[in-house]
């Protein structure tokens, strides 16, 4: 089976980076209005209730699948699913941020989303310093 192709979730991609910020600071940014606008393209803070709908500036619609404060959020993004997770890094002042997207249609879409998530990660890192 090719890299990135799963038996039950189609094509998937994951991007992660260790940031020089405490996990709580990364979580607050990612789920706050500035962070949500940056990685999701939606206005306002991220909804926290399971099943809550959202809509991005480009018209993509989805809903929250799960929300664990300080840890991770899963949501639908059109026909795919995105998970954003923040975990402690190697010290108190570091956190690992992960973006994972599954149920992608093809290897080409997987590469497109890899490029997208890497650019998002660069912007998040720049914003958080």
From TrEMBL:
<protein>
    <submittedName>
        <fullName>SRPBCC domain-containing protein</fullName>
    </submittedName>
</protein>
<dbReference type="InterPro" id="IPR013538">
    <property type="entry name" value="ASHA1/2-like_C"/>
</dbReference>
<feature type="domain" description="Activator of Hsp90 ATPase homologue 1/2-like C-terminal">
    <location>
        <begin position="22"/>
        <end position="128"/>
    </location>
</feature>
<comment type="similarity">
    <text>Belongs to the AHA1 family.</text>
</comment>
<dbReference type="Pfam" id="PF08327">
    <property type="entry name" value="AHSA1"/>
</dbReference>
<dbReference type="InterPro" id="IPR023393">
    <property type="entry name" value="START-like_dom_sf"/>
</dbReference>
